[in-house]
Amino acid sequence: MGTHYPIQIQPGDGTFGKIRKIVGIQLSSPYPDICYKLVMPDYGICIIGSVLAELGFDVEIFIEHVEPPDWHAVSFADLVLMSTFSAAARRIYELADLIRAELKIPVVMGGTHATYFAEDCLKHCDVVVLREGDETIAELIRALSTGRPLSQVAGIAFRENGRTRRTKDRAVPKTFDTIQNYRLIRGMGRFSWMDVLRRSRVPLVTVQSSRGCPFHCRFCIVDTMFGGGYRVRGIESLVEDLRDKRRYGKELLFVDNYFGADISYTKRLLTRIIEEAFDFDIIVLCRIEIARDPELLVLMRRAGVTALYVGIESIQPETLKDYAKRQTVERIQSSIATFHQHGFRLSGSFVIGADTDTPATIEETVAFARANGIEVCYFFPLWGHYVERKLGNRPLIPRHRSIFKGWDYCDGNFVTHFPLHLRPSQLQQAVIDSHRKIYTPAEFWEALRKRDWIAVKEKAANRYAWQFIEKGLRHYIPWLQQIEEGFYDRNGRLLEDRLKKRVEKDPVWTFPAPEMPDDAGGSGFRTHGRLLSSGAAAQIVRCKSL
Questions:
Q1: Distance CA 499, CA 484 (A)
Q2: What is the distance between the alpha carbons of residues 440 and 479, in angstroms, rounded to a whole number?
Q3: In angstroms, how far is the first alpha carbon of the chain from the final one?
Q4: Taking Cα atoms as reference points, which of 42, 155, 54, 161 lies closest to residue 108?
């Protein structure tokens, strides 16, 4: 059985001993999101586990929607790694508290939520790995095993002498050729049609060919999570990765923030994929700029790219400028036509609820999507509660206009701010109505009439999945109606001064204060995190008899 270590870390005391067995855990959010009907392991926790396995550690990963964490297996770990995102934070905290209290095993958290809310996470874990952890995690484990001071490990946060210390930033990895080892994931394999029916989930394997993005949209987290510029992966490493992934299925997603940003590299990569004849059905995340290169689009189709997830975000010129999208409505429209001419099916991402948005502009956005034949649409309420350096170490949304009912509601579908020109409840209803209009029976029958079988399948599948998401949003609206009362005039304009005074007096529903680096630069965080109540964490894990 693995050695259990004291939870209170004393840097340099050498009490952690030799770490051999490591368990990684990814938990699901309590409310369904757009990935709810997919079997798609988190990319980060699998990469970190694969890095450690290559270094000789005994690694096992639990992805909850594949197979929930096994308490008996966790109890044998010397160290537990937890992948975090905000919507699952409450459940992650509860399980981490249970592991530390009952098993006396140290817990390390990483990922988006841990990077932005390290102070809050450190109430429930021992160390936070910030941003990209490929290189940080190995150095951290060596420090824990040998007693080396954690202050010497770049890219982490931890508690010392009653305060949170944040070490110097770590340079981003210049190479990231590690292949995700799905064999480390308990229960992961090639899913049969019976598995798909039993789980009511469709498998989607993932790869990554680049990190970062050359664009700097104001609402996007990429600059923080993948700073250091746009970088590409070695092509032969990626080809080897694809060979391995093909054993797990045909549906493949490139998780690159912007597939095709480096045109020359992307063409070489696509040529190799064509040569290998993998026969994948590939989805990529991209911008409209790739429509300018017909040769690239032809290569993408030949390589098996059938679907594009396009970050359109808005069709309002003022909003596009405010988002720093660097694209025009005319260019968006012509690019959509080009994509359709090349036979791609489209998923359009739209962010609604900006300061320039009104009920009318949201209606126009939906009409634009329908008129241009975008098969699948996602309408996300604006999210802007992370502190960003590019915004002057401030969040996009002022704190007095933020809304926080709990981490459970931070999955990108729930409204979490007071818009300027419509009430929060109006925006939430607009999110629901916008999706309904894309997946109406009339839209479905129109696709049938045109014999557009891809559109029929996509609209049917997404309407089915959306009904599970919508249920939670409907139940959320009455609470929004309660807190917005008295803060809007007859024309639906936010009475911002009144709201600000109320928040100053009683910030009961306000988002946890953003964590800002101290003036000393990297020496620590001010303590702003809000402690969330714990629940029955034991329900998260599935216990097995010995």
A1: 9
A2: 27
A3: 13
A4: 155
Closest C-alpha among 141, 110, 112 to residue 17: 141
Does the global pTM surpass 0.85?
yes
CA-wise closest residue to 433 among 381, 492, 487, 384: 381
Helices (H), 485-533: 496-505
Determine contact, residues 435/470, Cβ cutoff 8 Å: yes
Ordered strands of the 205-207 beta sheet: 205-207, 251-254, 281-286, 305-313, 345-352, 376-381
SS3 state at 49? helix
| Dist CA 439 CA 458 (whole Å) | 10
Q: How far apart are CA 131 and CA 342, in angstroms?
A: 37
Residue 155, C-beta contacts closer than 8 angstroms, at least 6 positions apart? 129, 130, 131, 133, 135, 136, 167, 168, 169, 170
User: How far is Cα 201 from Cα 32, in angstroms, rounded to an integer?
Assistant: 12
Q: Write down the residue that tokens 């790739």 correspond to.
A: 290
Give the integer Cα–Cα distance in Å for 353 and 10. Answer: 46
The residue among 211, 279, 212, 270 whose CA lies nearest residue 245 is: 279
In tens, the pLDDT along 407-450 reads: 999 999 999 999 999 999 999 999 999 999 998 888 888 888 88
Section 540-545 average pLDDT: 33
Judged on CB neighbours under 10 Å (0-12, 13-18, 19+), 390 is middle
Q: Please state, in angstroms and as integers, the Cα–Cα distance from residue 353 to each residue in 191, 302, 423, following that order.
A: 39, 38, 10
